[in-house]
Design a protein that fits this description.
- It is a single chain.
- This protein is α/β, with parallel strands linked by helices.
- The chain has 2 domains: 127 residues, 3-Layer(aba) Sandwich (Rossmann fold), CATH 3.40.50; 135 residues, NAD(P)-binding Rossmann-like Domain (Rossmann fold, 3-Layer(aba) Sandwich).
- The protein contains 11 helices and 12 strands.
- The strands form 2 sheets. A 6-stranded mixed β-sheet has the order 2-1-3-5-6-4, sandwiched between helices. A 6-stranded parallel β-sheet has the order 9-8-7-10-11-12, with helices on both faces.
- The chain is globular.
- The chain binds NADP nicotinamide-adenine-dinucleotide phosphate.
- NADP nicotinamide-adenine-dinucleotide phosphate binds next to helix 5 and helix 10.
């Protein structure tokens, strides 16, 4: 199988390692290449890759939205989220999906974090946040509050949030909020190399029963350390990262892959 990732700067990507580990476990003869492209080639890149023998492509920053007009069909969850991270290149056309969405959902299930009827708070309004919010909504969250430094400043995000009945607040209002549900960090705050930062204070984190960070480097952010200290269930972004890659492979290979494979790769990558 000839697979790859398109994006602008890819030198730090962990995707080749995850896919190579999967090829090893499945005894598949596959390649997964990093393909750095410029914005002016976005229109022709999929046809070119298809003719070069590629069957599957992942898409990352800044092309997750820009690639959408060049797809034959886009899955329902990717349309709602407004971004595609996985493309299946076939002789029937180019099909787009969002496996950040399913990867996040699987990571919650793996950690035993219940969303149904739970009040959820999401920090950040970027591309990752949209997949997470859609996933929380589809899992039956009682309410979804999104925290931004500049609430209601992005019209497309406001429209998206309105459709699922979510509410946007600022960090001052978050400090006044008393809730015991799930708190998810979808900001880059606390990520390597600025690992001493946390998006919110210990006092705020201590109010939640489950604390989730999409960051996987480091595995144990200050944000998650606050949660652990106060007895919350905690989950970092490594399982989601591996699960979104496995979700893409399931689409390309046309078969489901056991959760035990995800767990094995997560362990090999240092949880
Ligand atoms: P992004 O677009 O760069 O940022 C997300 C949002 O965070 C921004 O829209 C912004 O929202 C807020 N933000 C940014 N800088 C901030 C700061 N200094 N202080 C407070 N808030 C800030 O990032 P993204 O692509 O959505 O990704 C977010 C995080 O998720 C990153 O750490 C990324 O590595 C991680 N991620 C992990 C996975 C995984 O598989 N584990 C997948 C995707 C992403 P406001 O302006 O509204 O405040």
């Amino acid at each position: 199988m000839k697979l790859g990732l398109i994006g602008k700067k890819l030198s730090h990507s962990k995707s080749p390692e995850i896919h190579q580990r999967l090829f090893g476990l499945q005894h598949i003869d596959g390649t997964y290449s990093l393909l750095e492209i410029q914005p002016d080639s976005i229109e022709t890149i999929l046809s070119k890759l298809y003719h070069d023998g590629y069957e599957g492509i992942n898409v990352t920053i800044p092309y997750k939205i820009d690639i959408m007009p060049f797809l034959t069909k886009i899955s329902q969850e990717a349309v709602s989220i407004g971004a595609v991270n996985t493309i299946h290149l076939t002789d029937q056309g180019f099909f787009g999906f969002n496996t950040d969405y399913s990867g996040f959902s699987r990571s919650l299930d793996h950690a035993g974090i219940r969303i149904q009827d739970t009040d959820c708070v999401v920090l950040g309004t970027g591309g990752a946040a949209r997949a997470i919010i859609q996933s929380l909504f589809d899992k039956g969250a009682a309410s979804i509050i999104v925290v931004s430094r500049h609430p209601r400043s992005k019209p497309a995000f406001c429209k998206f949030l309105e459709q699922i009945g979510g509410r946007e607040i600022d960090y001052d209002e978050l400090a006044r909020l008393q809730t015991g549900g799930v708190l998810v960090n979808c900001t880059p705050v606390g990520m390597y190399p600025k690992m001493d930062d946390s998006p919110v204070s210990e006092d705020i984190v201590s109010r939640y029963g489950a604390v989730v960070d999409l960051i996987y480097n480091p595995r144990d952010t200050i944000f998650l350390q606050y949660g652990k200290k106060h007895g919350a269930m905690t989950l970092n972004g490594m399982y989601m990262l591996v699960a979104q890659a496995i979700g893409a492979e399931e689409i390309w290979q046309g078969k489901s892959i056991s959760s035990s494979v995800i767990e094995k790769i997560v362990k090999e990558m240092g949880e």
